[in-house]
Amino acid sequence: MKKLIYTLALGLLIASCQNKKNEHVGHEQHQPEAATSTSSQSDNSKKSIPLEAHGNVGDAHVSVYYHSPAVRDRVIWGGLVPYGEVWVAGAHSATSVEFSKAIKIEGMTIPKGKYAFFTIPGQERWTLILNKNWEQHLADNYDQAEDVIRIEVTPETEMPLTERLTYTIEDKGEGSGAIRMSWEKLSISLPFKTD
Description:
The chain is α+β, with helices and mostly antiparallel strands. It has two helices and eleven strands. A hairpin with a 2-residue loop joins strand 4 and strand 5. The chain starts with a helix and ends with a strand. This is DUF2911 domain-containing protein.
C-alpha cells in the first residue's frame, strides 16, 4: 500500500512538473513574436542596434557598418552629440566604411579598403573624416595623424524626423555617389567619385 501511495504521489509530482514546464514553454513561444514586432515603439526602446548599409556606385561596392541609436525624445545636436568634438557617427564602435576599389573625394584618391568614419559636428559646418584606424571603441583611440582625408560640408537641417540613425549609399550616376547619414532632423553627405 505504501508503495502504491508513493508511486501515485511521484506520478502526480511528475505530471505537475510537466504542466509547469509546458506553461513556461508556451510563454517562451509567444515571446519571440513580441520581440520581432516591427512597431517603431519597441524598436526605438532599444538603445542602439548594429546595422549595415550596402550599395554600388559605378563599379565600386560601398559598405557601412554602424550602431544605430534612436532619438528617444532627447536633444541630439549640441546635447547628446556635442558641437566641436570628434564623434563616432554612431554608437559603441567606430562607424566603418569599406570601398571595394579606390575612389576619389575632392580630387584625392582614397585606396580601396576599410576606414573609420568620424565627424566633428558644428552648428553651421561639419567636418567629415576618414581615418585608417577603423577598429576602435567610440573615439577613444582617435588619432588625427591617422586621418586619410577631412572635408567640410554644410548639413541639411529641418528634414523630416529620422528616429533612428541611418546610413544610405546614393548612386548619383556617371560614377558619382555619396554616403548619407541621417538622424533626428539633420542629414550630411560624403560625396565621392569612382572614376
